[in-house]
Design goal:
Oligomer: single chain
Strand order of the largest sheet: 2-1-5-6
Number of helices: 8
Helix content: 40-55%
Structural class: alpha/beta
């Protein structure tokens, strides 16, 4: 990203702070590496006082964790183990391939993706999709008391977005889901 974009970021942070230099501003960046770069640039241009720089995932985690405590994010290995157990207990349409490692890996990856959606049920699922959803539902149900899914984190974070203060989005590459999750962003730099 060029200096022009960083200059526009520094201007956006200054505008967000307005007449209060210690006003909380959160800058959303595309990667953890960008956190360092943005902080260094803002430090040289007077914009780091009470300015947080986070990726969207870090912002979601920061906001969601206290709201969803004592539950914690569901780690992929736990989800994968639950999928594997579900296949062993009730293979359904996967009966011929349930004992193959790749089946559990593929279904666990699908389950992780489905965890970003509150209700992933399609209108007319095929038997394959219906069984995939059954495995997903059983795998996530095994952990609902102690862990939360990404869609729950995004919902909790969105309801607490005011705790980020003024928000500046510094990315040309936010995915549609990310833009929708934080549709209340006050400023957008670089689009």
């Amino acid at each position: 990203m060029g200096n022009d974009l960083y200059d526009r970021l520094a201007d956006a942070v200054t505008r967000a702070k307005g007449d209060r230099p210690l006003r909380l501003v959160t800058v959303i960046v595309p990667s953890r590496g960008a956190i360092r770069d943005v902080l260094q640039y803002l430090a040289r241009h007077g914009g780091v006082a009470n300015t947080r720089v986070l990726t969207l995932d870090l912002a979601v985690g920061t906001l969601a964790a206290p709201a969803l405590a004592p539950r914690v994010p569901l780690p992929f290995p736990y989800l994968a183990a639950s999928v594997q157990k579900g296949l062993a207990d009730e293979p359904g349409v996967f009966v011929d391939v349930a004992d193959q490692r790749i089946t559990a890996e593929a279904l666990a990856a699908a389950s992780r993706t489905l965890g970003a959606v509150a209700d992933p049920s399609p209108a007319n699922p095929t038997p394959l999709v219906r069984d995939m959803l059954r495995v997903h539902t059983a795998a996530k149900a095994a952990h609902t008391e102690t862990h939360y899914l990404p869609h729950e984190a995004h919902t909790a974070a969105t309801s607490r977005i005011d705790e980020l203060g003024e928000v500046v989005c510094f990315s040309r590459r936010l995915r549609t889901r990310e833009r929708r999750s934080f549709s209340t962003l006050s400023l957008h730099v670089g689009s």
